[in-house]
Amino acid sequence: MHHAANSIVSKKLREAREQTDHLLEMVRPEAFYDRPIAERHRLVFYAGHLEAFDWNMICRRHLGLESFHPEFDQLFEFGIDPGPDNLPTDHASDWPLLSHIDQYRLRTREAVDRALETADDPWVFSLALEHRLMHAETLTYLLHRLPHARKVRKVDALDYKREPALRSVEIPEGDATLGRRRQSSEQFGWDNEFSEEPVRTPGFSIDVHNVTNRQFLEFVVAGGYEERSLWTDTAWEWVQKNGIRHPNFWRTADGAWMYETMFSTIPLPLSWPVYVSHAEADAYARWRGRALPTEAQYHRAAFGTLEGTERDFPWGDAAPAAEVHGNFDAIRWNPQPVGSYSAGDSFFGVADLMSNGWEWTSTVFAPLRGFLPFRLYPGYSSNFFDGNHYVLKGASPRTSTELLRRSFRNWFQPHYSNVYAKFRCVEN
Ligand SMILES: [Fe+2]
Q: Ligand 1 centroid vs 39 CA: distance in angstroms?
């Protein structure tokens, strides 16, 4: 019985490796030691990190094997998420040669594959698989900030079609079930997804569609970035200190608004959801006299029904189908116009809740009732229960289908603006 489960994980792991390999192959050799995002490691780190993680979790901690390269196990073990005042200061020359990392990668993969053939329980391999898939997405954020000339161009479709009008829908009072129950036989889940926490949620109204670049442009033109009253103290300090006047994905050229996609600079696509930091989403919501949804409100809008039962996905209980239910699973490099996938609408008719970009919530990332840190990886979530990370829900164009589930929670700092993260407003 366990052999069938192992071969499924083995196949998924092979596909995930292909995906991360393809992303790393997009980096031109001269760019490998670049640091496209100041708060993250140089790209070279990611060439070693995925295998170091697999080795450390599976071979070292889980199986107790003797290391063949302790130095790399440690060097490539952890990513970073510093505040603005302690950015990394390492030099390109501090990092090893790629050829040495390639050898480490091959040898680790052999060891992991051998271990998986005889494993009794593929749980730790699922952990490695999901870790890799999440990095496939965050590596994409890094590549997005790499100048066009320093990466290999891929085909990316651009679609600008229709734009639905701004409207909202009433969600009646009801229960939202955050998290999930602990059951041994279940699908893999990260520690922060446990345990189940029902939240009684009063009625509210919510935007049917995400805030678009066009709508956010109104805020920019109206002077939203210069209006002190729209920002919290820390957000205002961030805006002033960094001279922020528009979303990170936007550019200006000869008085025209442009947009920076992965591979080109294009006229601002007005129908796409705006990708912004939490601080900018929050300021926009305040400007409209509204608020960002709480995690529970997101759940109500996405999974709730009038009868009080909850769906597995916004569209029902059917397994997610990319390009039917939404824009996810790395089919596209870009967002689609809001409201492009009506088959993915929730019971209450809210669009794109698990598609086209993560959704910011107003909820600070914190443990659910009954949280227990993973024994193999105790800091995975608990290192971020610091009051300075907010929960995001849903999926972006670059989120693997494997990660689409009701209980999945993503989190980022409020001023981190490299995420494919969109938002919508609620009225309480
Ligand atoms: Fe990682």
A: 14
